[in-house]
Structure prediction request, 275 residues.
Amino acid sequence: MLAFEKNGRYESVRNDTELAARITDDIYKTSGAIGVPAGAFVADVVHSARPIPEGPPPPMTAEMRERNRASIVGQNCLFQTIDTLPRHIGYLKLDGFAEASVCQEITGRALAAVNNADALIVDLRDNGGGFGESALAIAGYLFDRPTFLYDPRPHSRVPSHTASPIFGSKLADKPVYILTSSRTQSAAEYFVYNLKMLKRVTIVGERTAGKQHSGAFHRLDDHFGIGIQETAPPDNPYPVKGWEIIGIEPDVAVSRAEALDVARALAESRSRRSR
Prediction:
């Protein structure tokens, strides 16, 4: 970074947001040149228009926790749509992975509503992430045995395997299509990445955002911070070592606007062939 600065690389930067993005880009270009595999998290610099507070956030009170619980339950735990489309295709539009301990019952009802479908579409085009435990819980419905999901965060509290099989679930052997966009990120990418690596789903849509964020965050000053990998990540058995910056490439690349229609056509075609 000092060499780049000395060579004038940052003199043409127009604003602080662009500076943070350019430094992050340089981190990954340099990391790749010295052998860090694509997709692995190294560090990223962020700019905040609002002042970044010093020290850790204050602990949540019981009143705050109850208010958050009531709010997320009132939003149906971010399940925006639960439906069965023509030709027995289940459709779930999920705009975030809400806290598992709060949303266990609602999640169970959502999956039960599509349990008899011949195929399932999970729409994550507007999913900005959330809790890995919730992503793991939903993935559990899609397997008939405990299945490993890679979590890039050292010492993660998220279990390493799904709780499969889920009693009563009929989805473990059904075709699954996941809709993605450039807004699909974080815990949603954890979900998409693992199911792609396991070849369990067909991903339809756009490349995801590429925001793994598995490092520790440090405040640099009032408006800049850095997330950095301070501890070696867990061993990753998959050939693609993560999704930071590079995102997750869809199996069927189409615009976000086309993704649902394309996934429906794929599901209907597969259903006709299996009859």
